[in-house]
């Protein structure tokens, strides 16, 4: 399940240029502050079976997280879903694919440095080649030429790198407009934003306007592409919150295991 950050509110003052890293970390810190209130935290149960389930869920702040999830879903039904449906109707599918490609391409530097940090040169090389090829032959990332020549997109971020080092994730958190996370991945998200070059676009030459358009269009496409998945989840799941929590935690652990087990040769397949 992919709940992406909402970047539509762009300010005219210096705070407008505050990175998404700051907002993400501020959100995590705010939730932790709220979590200090007993009513927003579940104490560990005394029954051994219940305690095992409690530890497996890793969600001591479940009352608070459910409130945040309900806030997210209220915004989804009132605003995000209708606007996403309008986006799908108004924007042709090839254009939407290009927008998704641009977002993936501009995230590749963060993927590259995360792979380097994880000690996986082959993965880092693939990320480097994807960025170089798509920024040139792919016209700034609008076309995934790299994927056509064998450099497939893969996910690595600083949170996954920290996880591959054995850093514990900490308690599960749900941050509105960012989605499922934990302390480790919240910090990793901030680092990732610092490694994303689009966040350093300077003033002038309409580049700042491109930055706004990139963030707004990317956010719209992110929500629009998730509509069917969210709708099916709400219809088919007895407890969508628990399902999302479990699926996210399992997916993150699977990604960490994939990184740790990726011991491919440094040279690409075509060189051998």
UniProtKB/TrEMBL annotation:
It comes from the Bacteria. InterPro entries: MlaA. One of its GO terms (cellular component) is membrane. The keyword Signal applies. Keywords: Signal. One of its GO terms (biological process) is intermembrane phospholipid transfer. Belongs to the MlaA family. PANTHER family: INTERMEMBRANE PHOSPHOLIPID TRANSPORT SYSTEM LIPOPROTEIN MLAA, LIPOPROTEIN VACJ-RELATED. This is Lipoprotein. It comes from Gluconobacter kanchanaburiensis NBRC 103587.
């Amino acid at each position: 399940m992919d709940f992406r950050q909402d970047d539509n509110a762009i300010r005219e003052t210096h705070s407008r240029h505050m990175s998404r890293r700051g907002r993400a970390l501020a959100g995590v810190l705010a939730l932790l502050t709220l979590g200090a209130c007993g009513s927003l935290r579940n104490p560990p149960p005394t029954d051994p079976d219940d305690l095992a389930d409690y530890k497996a869920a890793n969600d001591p702040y479940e009352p608070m997280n459910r409130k945040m999830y309900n806030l997210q879903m209220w915004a989804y039904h009132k605003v995000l879903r209708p606007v996403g449906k309008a986006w799908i109707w108004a924007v042709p599918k090839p254009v939407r694919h290009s927008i998704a490609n641009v977002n993936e391409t501009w995230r590749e530097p963060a993927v590259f440095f995360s792979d380097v940090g994880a000690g996986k040169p082959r993965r880092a090389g693939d990320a480097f080649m994807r960025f170089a090829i798509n920024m040139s032959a792919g016209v700034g990332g609008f076309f995934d030429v790299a994927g056509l020549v064998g450099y497939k997109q893969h996910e690595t971020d600083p949170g996954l790198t920290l996880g591959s080092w054995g850093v514990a994730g900490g308690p599960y958190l749900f941050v509105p407009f960012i989605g499922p996370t934990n302390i480790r991945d919240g910090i990793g998200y901030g680092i990732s934003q610092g490694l994303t070059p689009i966040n350093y676009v300077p003033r002038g030459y309409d580049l700042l306007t491109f930055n706004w358009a990139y963030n707004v269009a990317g956010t719209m496409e992110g929500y629009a592409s998730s509509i069917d998945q969210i709708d099916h989840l709400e219809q088919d799941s007895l407890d969508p919150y628990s399902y999302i929590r479990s699926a996210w935690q399992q997916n993150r652990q699977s990604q960490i295991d994939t990184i740790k087990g990726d011991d491919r040769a440094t040279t690409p397949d075509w060189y051998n």
